[in-house]
Each structure stands twice: as C-alpha cells, then as structure tokens.
Amino acid sequence: MTEAPFLPRERLFKQQHYFQNLTKHTYLKGRFDVITSVAIPLALAGTSMFMIGRGVYNMSHGIGKKE
Fold it and tell me: Is the pTM of this model over 0.90?
C-alpha cells in the first residue's frame, strides 16, 4: 500500500519551478520570509538602539537615580 502524497504532483512541480527561477537570495524566497529575515531583526535593533540612547541620556543628565 502506498501513501497518498502531501501535494499533487503538478502543484509541487509548479512550486519547485517558481523557487528555482527566483533571483532573490535564498532566505527571502518564501512569501513571509521577508518578515522573519528583515522586519523582526530591524525592529529589535531599532528598539535596542532607542533604549540604549535613552539610558545614555538619563545617565548623562542624572535622571532616574535611586536615593
């Protein structure tokens, strides 16, 4: 007994052809790969830079010190 395939053969060939003919980088080929490879790291970097800048400003002006 053979197991049924996950996808129809024609659809699989169509997807393989699509991914093989893309000129983008490998990590950006999927539909939502731009979100995970670009947007999330940029958001984390931006947030961390903001928090570091705020901390440096607070330290240089003496704001938020505990008594």
Answer: no
